[in-house]
Amino acid sequence: MKKGTIFGLFALLVVGMVFSASMVSAYRGDYSVKGPNYNEDRHVAMQNAFDSLDYDAWKELMTEDGRHPRVVEVVTESNFETFVQAHEAGENGDYETAAQLRAELALYNGNGPKDGTGYGRGQRMQQNGLRKGRM
Question: Is 32 helix (H, G, I), strand (E, B) or coil?
């Protein structure tokens, strides 16, 4: 194969991977994009759970069909109201407030906390003294 053909195939592969990754993660925290599990009946049931602050109904909807998204590990009955406020802020276009509330809940939309640990992945380095200038 010619060098140009190989480069073209590589470029096409990279563009395809970037596009598919953005499509898969687009709905996370983006209130204008419907997630892969969206359907009208589930949406109405979810909205009812939010309106009535019914944590148990919300959790059941989130874990139906054997699913176990990370959000059900983070959102608890005690912080569900904050989660609902974040959802409502996002639905109303107040993305800054929604992001602030989601960060308060440790829902970083796959970006990790902005303290350099990335969901605790830096803890081992910190325990071994490899962070903060120690070797």
Answer: coil
CB 36 within 8 A of CB 27: yes
Q: For residues 63 and 42, is the Cβ–Cβ distance under 8 A?
A: no
Q: How far apart are CA 63 and CA 60, in angstroms?
A: 5
For the chain, the structural domain boundaries read 1-35, 37-135
Tokens of 56: 């148990």
29 neighbors 102 (Cβ within 8 angstroms): yes
Please list, in sequence order, all residues whose beta carbon lies within 8 angstroms of the beta carbon of residue 97, skipping any fewer than 6 positions away: 86, 89
> For each of the chain's 135 residues, which pLDDT tens digit applies?
566 677 666 666 665 554 444 334 335 556 677 877 688 999 999 999 999 999 999 999 999 988 888 899 999 999 999 999 999 999 999 999 998 999 999 887 655 555 555 545 455 445 555 444 444
Half-sphere exposure of 3 (CA within 13 A, CB side): 0
Which pTM was predicted?
Answer: 0.60
